[in-house]
Amino acid sequence: MIDFKKFANYSKAGPRYTSYPTAVEFRENFGVDDFENALNRNDKFSNLPLSIYVHLPFCKSACYFCACNVIYTNSEEKKERYLGYLKKELELIAKKMDTSRQVVQLHFGGGTPTYFNAKQLEIIIKAIYQTFPNFAKNAEISCEIDPRHFTREQMDVLKAGGFNRVSFGVQDFDGTVQKAINRFQSIELMQEVVKIARDAGIGSINFDLIYGLPYQSVSSFMDTLKKAVSLGADRFAVFNYAHVPWIKRTMGNIDEKTLPTPETKLEILKNTIAFLKDCGYEMIGMDHFAKSNDELTLASKNAELRRNFQGYTTRGFSQTIGIGLTSIGEGLDYYAQNFKDIKQYEAALDSGRLPIERGVALSDEDRLRKEVIMQLMNNAQLEFKKIEALFDIDFKTYFAKELKELQVFVDDGILEIKDSGIYANATGGMLIRNIAMVFDAYLDKIPEDQRRFSKTV
Question: 243-262 burial string, b = 16+ CB within 10 Å, else e?
């Protein structure tokens, strides 16, 4: 049995490691010229594939749990105006990099991408294909969908545009939880939207669930899981709620006293893993689940998963080109983020400049530690020889201090350090953020009581 009280003590502020260095280290002294130089450097690797992320930031109303960068509006004019600026950005990108390189991923995120109507989505898709014409035959093309804003007409446009994966935001089916997070949607609505996707031939449907929301209990979340599984999703992303009201003011509408304890959250996660396994889903990385024959599962078993801003992928490392307000791009040696303020975003494009607000150039040390952290985050294990071959180091010598710090996890029985590498067990997988933090060279510079991250448990 897992001692939940013991492992709840691991709950501390820590990064989710969608990037390393994390966004906290992005700086405004990395500007548009640095970005364009980085694009030129990465273009030299002609067989480095591309991943395109398009941020569609608009929502009709606030969901109190959401930490995304969104704009709340009922204005069609604002959405139409945004389409014009997306086109401007794509036209500029085409002048600054080789857009004929192969694209292996396209992802629409938000906000609520399907808050744009079918015609508007068609305009966006056409502009992307005009800019990036070389899509791989097996490209992963996906869209995040709010079930409350989804029609058959939109699905037809997405399908015609090559979309082969959709992800529905479910979060929780319990009425009390839905009221507390200002997000109401019934299981009947979910049945309707799943049917729309299946009728269109979509073979990969993901549900997003969140544990740690107000008023959730072990039993209430199990009810949500049972309903979600009955709808036949191919994958689940089960996220740990990040309560960061100092970043997202709308989270201030949530009464912190109603949030489940770390012990309860760990028990919810343990039960989720066991229940989904019984239903034929394997745990992938730290928060994803897929059926046993899914390509994610196969990649996980072979320790070949990669993690980027869109989640886990089997496509290996690709250079991410972020399009739209607040989008983040990633290359071999940089991260770059667009403006979060829409007026600044528009002003940059009106002046003929890419809308880069900040970023970071990766040092050799950053690249080494990034690979170590991502290997752990991707696969809950790390083979020394892989890192040694990539960076020409002796792992045990180079990371002697970190290996010593990992001993506490070994002593607690959640981690093994062998001659060949580092291996977390199932409990260690739940705490993989804590394990990865040992290799983060930036965290020690931030006093623990000043770390503005979500809790790891």
Answer: beeeebebbeebeeeebbeb
